[in-house]
Design a protein that fits this description.
The chain is an all-alpha fold. It is built from 8 helices and no strands. It has one domain.
């Protein structure tokens, strides 16, 4: 396998892993009546994918990466549906009426930020940096979601491991090997390294959480989850 083939493999592998993440988020969202991806990470994903779909097609036409991005965008639309359908109950009661307005404001904000980022750094460099920065934020937010919920509700090791590997592959591509006409990027390598670091922490915490939950019967877990929400 030559370098070009290996780079193509890494792109395809990353695309496959992240597709698994999104599909499992949808599955868990509907099965457990929740949303399975932290909202701000989800909002950034949708904004990034929509802009890539439009701008990359205008610049270079259809490509393999664009096809993957289109699939991700469709899957993310299903995930955000679960957020709007089930997410209101995670808002404090006294501000629950602002749930939809706040969520729409957040989507508008991240869309403008993503567009400004691409305009400032250029399309190809900007999308690379934006993708890794939002992946780092996502890795941290998943830990926050696990801590806040106090359970594995809406979370799975399939998601945890797949998102780790899905970011590790492009970290090797852009941080070590170099691609898109440029050499290896130290910034990408550092951000990608932190993504792996926090992803592995999350996986370890989730394993411990699931092991603890096996010690309780379902009725006890329901009571613990209810108590956590009223704290």
């Amino acid at each position: 396998m030559n370098l070009a083939q290996f780079l193509w493999f890494l792109v395809a592998f990353s695309g496959f892993c992240w597709t698994i993440v999104y599909i499992d988020c949808i599955r868990l969202g509907f099965r457990e009546s929740t949303y399975a991806m932290p909202f701000w990470a989800l909002a950034l994903n949708i904004a990034w994918e929509l802009l890539q779909t439009v701008l990359e097609y205008q610049k270079a036409g259809f490509s393999f990466q664009l096809g993957i991005t289109n699939v991700w965008l469709l899957l993310d639309c299903a995930i955000i549906y679960t957020y709007f359908r089930f997410g209101q109950r995670y808002f404090p009661q006294y501000v629950r009426s602002w749930f939809v307005a706040w969520s729409i404001l957040a989507l508008i904000t991240v869309f403008i930020l993503q567009y400004a980022f691409l305009s400032e750094f250029g399309f190809y460099i900007g999308r690379k940096y934006a993708a890794f920065l939002q992946n780092l934020l996502m890795s941290v937010l998943f830990i926050g979601m696990l801590v806040t919920r106090g359970s594995s509700e809406g979370q799975s090791l399939t998601i945890g491991v797949s998102k780790w590997l899905g970011t590790l592959a492009p970290t090797v591509t852009y941080g070590i090997l170099g691609s898109e006409g440029s050499g290896p990027s130290l910034l990408v390598l550092v951000i990608g390294g932190f993504c792996s670091f926090f992803d592995l922490i999350y996986i370890g915490m989730l394993v411990q959480t699931k092991a603890r939950e096996k010690c309780y019967d379902p009725h006890t877990l329901i009571l613990l989850s209810a108590a956590k929400k009223f704290q």
